[in-house]
Amino acid sequence: MWRWVTVNSRSDTIAVFGAGVMGRSITALALGRGVDVVLVDVSDDILQKARTEIAQQMRHGQFMGAFPDGQAAGTLTTTLSGTDAADAGVVIEAITEDASLKARIMAEISGMLPAGIPVITNTSGIPVAELAKSVRRPEDLAGAHFMNPAYLIEMVEVIRGPQTGDETMAAVRSALERLGKKTVVVRDAPGFVTSRLLHPMINEAVRIVAEGVASVESVDRLMHGCLGHPTGPLRTADLIGLDNLADALRLLAERTGNSTFEPCELLLEKVRRGDLGRKTGRGFYDYGKVLS
Predict the structure, then answer these.
(1) Is residue 287 within 8 Å of 44, Cβ to Cβ?
(2) Which of 27, 144, 162, 183 lies most in the core, judged by the most C-beta atoms within 10 Å?
(3) What CATH number belongs to 194-280?
């Protein structure tokens, strides 16, 4: 559980809850755009590793031209205390894709914020309406599906829940534009648009490999060369995290009632072995080094 304490005002700050893969990437994006960030997690060890990786991501973003020339970086504050984020202008929840855990944390975040502060849940497919049941003011809640790495991919899928207010939508889009993002707003539904299309495609690519139809490399080369997929579905899976992908597929299957979305056995086998993609150094490809 987060520890709540009183701190000074940070009205122009973005607060990010969760220092995992997406929390780090979103934080690097904001800092590179000159926005101060309070990054909250429950583990000192995770926060220490996050600082190292965020610095690496910011260097990569600068090298790739993702940040404005001459832009001074924002200030990063890492903390175990949730109330260090209480005066932020925007709060982004970016914890693991677990509906019950997200609901619990969203309730805690909502309870500490004044009315009118937009709360964004970063989710690849959990309906906003489902999470809205846990917050005090559903009108302040919206969804955003950042793609990884958030500091390089220019577009964000924004999800308007059934109770999301007009002022919240305007504030969320303004905040994302401040981060240099283009936005497309979609209605609330399991998997929204991008996950509903991308995750089953990756699952099918894994099945093709499992059946021996083609190698991992051949699947990705064909999808890139013939269909224009920038990295191929299996490299994308490694970037998402195979555990995150399996969870998202289960969620899609449960929420839609479509059993074909269930993660295939080869994907589950890799998750059981701990081969989760780039973050563990091995997934469908071998990266040689664990990205902690």
Answers:
(1) no
(2) 27
(3) 1.10.1040.10
Coil, strand or helix at 3: strand
Helix (H) or strand (E) holding 128: helix 128-132
How many residues are given for the chain?
A: 292
Residues 246, 239: contact at Cβ < 8 Å?
A: no
Q: How would residue 289 be classed by pLDDT, with cut points 50, 70 and 90?
A: low
For residue 56, the model assigns a pLDDT of 97
CB atoms within 10 A of CB 224: 15
> The domain 14-187 is classified under which CATH number: 3.40.1060.10, 3.30.413.10, 3.40.50.720, 3.60.10.10?
3.40.50.720
Instruction: Using alpha carbons, list the distances in angstroms from residue 43 to 79, 112, 117.
Output: 9, 20, 26
Going from N- to C-terminal start, the domains of the chain cover 14-187, 194-280
Residue 258 token pair: 């479509």
The strand ranges marked E within the chain are 14-17, 37-40, 76-79, 90-93, 119-122, 141-145, 155-160, 182-187
Contact 36, 12 (CB under 8 A): yes
Name the pTM for this structure: 0.88
Instruction: Dump pLDDT digits (tens) for 140-170.
Output: 999 999 998 999 999 999 999 999 999 999 9
- The pair of structure tokens assigned to 239 is 């970037």
